[in-house]
């Protein structure tokens, strides 16, 4: 290969590299322009606080609406402690605990089950209403 051919290859390589860098710069400018030209939220708007448990938040047309749903609360203790608490088949935690029954805004019967390895399952059905507070103290029997 001649010296002139090597120089031409180097020139072609540098021109290709320059074209690639120019294209990358053009894409970056377009992306940045698109990002900067997007409308931004009003920075003077009041922040929306996260509501405590017992409330539901929905957003419509950029306005937050907070609705109270007033769940029932059930304080559950067991002897021995550490039993799994199931309400309507859904695990809610381990005893001792205070659990919220959100669906109890609709008054009705709710199945409550406590389970612990080495002990018989403890089951009760309880009528709950929205906003109600109930306490349960379960004594679990050892399995034989």
Could you give a quick summary of the protein structure above?
With 144 residues, the protein is an alpha+beta fold. The chain has one helix spanning 3-37; strands at 55-60, 63-68, 72-79, 84-87, 90-94, 97-101, 108-115, 122-128, 133-139.
How would you describe this protein?
The structure is a single chain. By secondary structure, this protein is α+β, with helices and mostly antiparallel strands. The chain has one helix spanning 3-37; strands spanning 55-60, 63-68, 72-79, 84-87, 90-94, 97-101, 108-115, 122-128, 133-139. Strands 5-4-7-8 form a four-stranded antiparallel beta sheet, with no helix packed on it. The longest helix is centred in the first third of the chain and has 35 residues, at 3-37. The protein is elongated and about 95 Å long.
Question: What portion of residues belong to β-strands?
Answer: 35-45%
CATH topology group of the largest domain: Immunoglobulin-like
Q: What is the CA–CA distance across the termini? A: 92 Å
Given the helix and strand composition, which structural class is it? alpha+beta
């Amino acid at each position: 290969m001649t010296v002139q051919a090597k120089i031409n290859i180097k020139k072609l390589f540098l021109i290709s590299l320059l074209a690639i860098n120019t294209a990358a710069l053009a894409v970056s400018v377009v992306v940045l322009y698109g990002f900067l030209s997007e409308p931004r939220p009003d920075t003077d708007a009041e922040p929306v606080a996260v509501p405590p448990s017992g409330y539901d938040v929905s957003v419509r047309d950029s306005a937050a609406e907070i609705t109270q749903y007033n769940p029932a609360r059930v304080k559950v203790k067991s002897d021995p402690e550490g039993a799994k608490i199931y309400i309507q088949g859904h695990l809610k935690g381990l005893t001792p605990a205070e659990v919220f029954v959100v669906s109890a805004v609709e008054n009705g019967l709710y199945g409550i089950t406590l389970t612990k390895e080495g002990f018989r399952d403890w089951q009760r059905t309880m009528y709950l209403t929205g906003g109600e507070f109930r306490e349960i103290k379960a004594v679990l029997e050892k399995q034989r």
